[in-house]
């Protein structure tokens, strides 16, 4: 007599089949946001003081034209896309939960920060590729100062986004463990934003705290948000 071996279902053998969670597009965007910033910090000139004069700016960027160009693209250009995508995804999640006011605040803050970052990228490229090579130190100083003051405005907008995200964590829309990092980000980035907006050297140093928190918040939101939606 011929014996036919029938595969035993995993449930009958006591072996559970665990679904494989593949990285979502939003998770990739979140990780790419931090990687872009890390790459930006590793190229180009060092931390040029927000109060540097035209000669100092020209010397710093003129010596590292390629690196400075990459730095603006990686710190302002690509991150703008990440902010927009992650922020809009968070806003959609809030809207699905019926939190319409929080959804509007989140969407407006994310898109505003992304728009400011894009303009900063363009101005930075003009500074590095046009003003500095032409020796226009006055123009270079003006552009550099404008980029820094816009950074202050962007940071204040990001503080609003962080507060909105923290409230959504409290509501269960976003990961609950991101609530405290969200509040910490809002506090530190608001302080550094005031520093950059008014060119106050002491407060600009808060960026050393707010930037890692921003990277943590954006990346973690991008990774955890699709899991919350399942």
UniProtKB/TrEMBL annotation:
Q: Does the keyword Transmembrane apply?
A: yes
Coiled coil located at which positions? Answer: none
Locate the transmembrane regions by residue number.
25-44, 77-94, 106-132, 152-168, 180-199, 205-225
Which residues are the signal sequence here?
A: none
Q: Which UniProt keywords apply?
A: Membrane, Transmembrane, Transmembrane helix
Report what the protein is called. DUF4386 domain-containing protein
Q: Which species does the entry assign this protein to?
A: Streptacidiphilus cavernicola
């Amino acid at each position: 007599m011929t014996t036919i071996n029938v595969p035993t279902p995993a449930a009958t053998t006591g072996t559970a089949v665990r679904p494989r969670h593949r990285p979502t597009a939003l998770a990739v965007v979140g990780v790419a946001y931090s990687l872009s910033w890390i790459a930006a910090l590793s190229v180009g000139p060092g931390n040029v003081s927000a109060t540097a004069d035209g000669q100092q700016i020209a010397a710093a960027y003129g010596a590292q034209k390629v690196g400075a160009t990459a730095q603006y693209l990686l710190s302002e250009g690509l991150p703008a896309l990440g902010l927009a995508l992650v922020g809009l995804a968070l806003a959609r999640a809030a809207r699905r939960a019926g939190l319409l006011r929080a959804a509007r605040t989140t969407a407006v803050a994310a898109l505003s920060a992304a728009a400011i970052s894009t303009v900063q990228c363009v101005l930075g490229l003009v500074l590095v590729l046009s003003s500095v090579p032409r020796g226009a130190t006055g123009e270079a100083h003006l552009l550099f100062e404008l980029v820094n003051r816009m950074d202050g405005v962007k940071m204040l907008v990001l503080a609003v986004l962080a507060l909105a995200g923290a409230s959504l964590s409290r509501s269960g829309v976003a990961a609950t463990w991101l609530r405290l990092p969200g509040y910490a980000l809002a506090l530190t980035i608001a302080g550094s934003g005031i520093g950059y907006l008014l060119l106050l050297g002491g407060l600009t140093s808060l960026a050393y705290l707010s930037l890692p928190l921003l990277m943590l918040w954006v990346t973690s939101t991008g990774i955890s948000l699709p899991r919350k939606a399942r």
